[in-house]
Amino acid sequence: MGHPYEDVHFFRQDKRLQLPNVPFAVGLSHRHPHSIRRDAVGCTSIEYLISGRIHAVINNRSYDIAPGDMFILPRNGRYECSSPVPMRTRKIYLYYHHMEIEHLLALHGLAQVHHVPSCTAAAPWCRALFTLARRFEHTPSEQDALLAEASTYMHRIMILLSQESRKRFIVPGDILAMMNYIDMHLHEPITLSDIAAASGKSVPHAIRVFKRETGSTPHEHLLKRRIETAIFLLKSTGENIRFIASRAGFRNEHYFSAVFKKHTGRPPSVMRRGFEPSCQ
Question: Is 98 exposed, middle or buried (0-12, 13-18, 19+ CB in 10 A)?
């Protein structure tokens, strides 16, 4: 039958606080058979199943998880995972013990999502993140660069999770293509022509169909996503306003502050004081 095997590596906590999307631990699990039960555990786990099958009950909802699927075990949730047949399971898991991950999941539309089938595109990024965590422990001189790289990998994983999750809903393919393009290029300068091109439509046609299906224009959706990203960064990091403006895709901090106040009713600095980010 074999024995359970865990290979776990850690990103140093004090460094990680400035990069809230980087997990505090990344592990590779081999279990034969797989069986685990947890109640109100104080961490969130994002997991990718490499092989085997898992039947999971997460907050009283049942899921059958197959190779290539990802699943999210929420902080303080109740869940039970077991193998429906006596076979070894292998998975990569990402552990978070801070509450900022909940805001990050919500930012990507994943707050109530526990199972994302057929997310095989995330596999190389999960494996790369595991490799980085292993290197992080043994190469102190490279840790800052490795953390930045890990943040980039995790951003890619979140985007892929969000994209695959959206496919479960009835969203026309052209609208989905535009939404995905916006998420993938949120931090870059984006024009309406760029967004329309992702759907293969002219700008006027893209605006009409997007507004018809979502109730907002592509530009309004882009601005909403950028404001959401800025709020997340204000809540979870101690970065300065100029950095946050750039990460959220605004051309400068003054424009960012004006737009932010117009849409939220408060300037970024005032909203930040209300949130009291954990890293300060």
Answer: buried
Q: Report CA-CA distances (Å) from 215 to 10, 238, 268.
A: 43, 34, 27
**Which tokens go with 168?**
């479960």
Per-residue pLDDT of 180-200, as tens digits, reads: 899 889 889 999 999 999 999
Q: What is the DSSP letter of 18?
A: T
130 backbone dihedrals φ, ψ, rounded to 5°: -60, -45
Q: What is the pLDDT of residues 23-52, one digit of tens each?
A: 999 999 987 656 777 776 788 999 999 999
pLDDT tens readout for residues 51-62 = 999 999 988 889
Please state, in angstroms and as integers, the Cα–Cα distance from residue 194 to each residue in 43, 127, 203, 206, following that order. 39, 31, 9, 11
Neighbours of 65 (CB within 10 A): 24
